[in-house]
Amino acid sequence: IHLSDVPDGPVTGYAVFGAVGRFPYVMVLDIHGHRVWARQPYVDGRSLSVDPFLRGLQHQDGNLLLAFTARGSGTNGYAAIFKLNISSGTTIGSRVFGGNYSTYVRAIREVEGNYVIAGYRTFYGCLAVPDFWVAKLSASLGVLAQNSYGDGCLAYDDERAVAVVQTSSGFMLAGTKDNRTWVVETDAALQQTRGRQFNGVIAYDIAPSGDGFILDELSGSWMTLQRLDAAGDPVWRTDYRDPPIGRAWRFVPAADGGFIGTGSASGGAWVTKLGPEGTLTTDPGVVVPVDPDTGQTPVSVDFPLVIKPGTTSVEIVDSTSDTPPPNFRF
Questions:
Q1: Where are the alpha helices (DSSP H) in the chain?
Q2: Nearest in space to 40 (alpha carbons), one of 32, 49, 29
Q3: Average pLDDT over the chain, rounded to whole?
Q4: Which of 18, 74, 148, 324 has the smallest number of CB atoms closer than 10 Å to its CB?
Q5: Contacts of 304 (CB under 8 A, 6+ apart)
Q6: Is 44 in a helix, a strand, or coil?
Q7: CA distance 60 to 69
Q8: pLDDT tens-digit profile of 248-266?
């Protein structure tokens, strides 16, 4: 479930993107958690079952965008994108990508009033061989450009994009190719300008950081962070083996140029502070948050987390639990 603040629209509160059973579901809540509206989006008059990856955001016009991978009556996966009115939840527009291939959504960003959707697609006849896929949509969901990158059916390389960021000249996609981190750079028209592999086994995220980017990878059973400059070239790389840190789910910039990160590891969730060069400044041990009002802890804290940095604290929000606990502050 993705939570996003809705501070400037007709509704002040939260938009909750998730699923009921295997079907997409969107709710808008007021600041007290009371439901304002709830909708189950439809494509061509019928609902579509979804995989666990849903992505949502609020457009600069105040309305909501929901993107997910759906499955119709067949086995192919379809990338489905919906734009919903923030006040009523009615569908403003929708777009579906699919056909003789399966398309999987893994990331979405708003870029200069438009949208960029990234993930991967598998082609008919070689369904086990995915390629990176990206599409650029207008605010009205018109297709401005789309492209895929990889070897297609020519080689059995597993290429799956999981994140996308804007660069000064186009876009940068991060994912995995043949069990190694793969970063693809494109121009504004989504034509590939460069592709390179790094030592990480799995890439989880790439995000803007100062005048460059931070690449989050998993190498073996420990986390790796790599700083890239504005041109996408490596600046530094840090492996967190001792003490080992498991999967990182989110990093946000800190005021001193460093990062605050959270993620999951064996036994629970963790939160830590990194310096500007990726050095550990706090113990990344597993944390068990406690509700300050009740003194109770969640049954499990081994889940993806969302970071919401405040002025003097960091708010950690459970983003997947079937029964979300209260927010916890550190």
A1: none
A2: 49
A3: 75
A4: 74
A5: 249, 263, 264, 319, 320
A6: coil
A7: 24
A8: 666 777 777 787 777 766 5
Residue 142: other Cβ atoms inside 10 A: 11
Report CA-CA distances (Å) from 246 to 163, 241, 288: 19, 9, 16
Other beta carbons within 10 angstroms of residue 233's beta carbon come to: 9
- pLDDT at 303 (0 to 100): 41
Virtual torsion, Cα 208, 222, 310, 167, nearest 10 deg: 0
Distances (CA, A) of 141 to 116, 132, 176, 190: 10, 21, 28, 17
- Tell the residue number behind the tokens 């061509």, with chain if given: 44
Q: How far is CA 286 from the centre of its chain?
A: 23
Nearest to 144 by CA among 115, 104, 185: 115
pLDDT at 138: 93
Higher pLDDT, 111 or 318: 111
CA dist 67 and 311 (Å) reads: 31
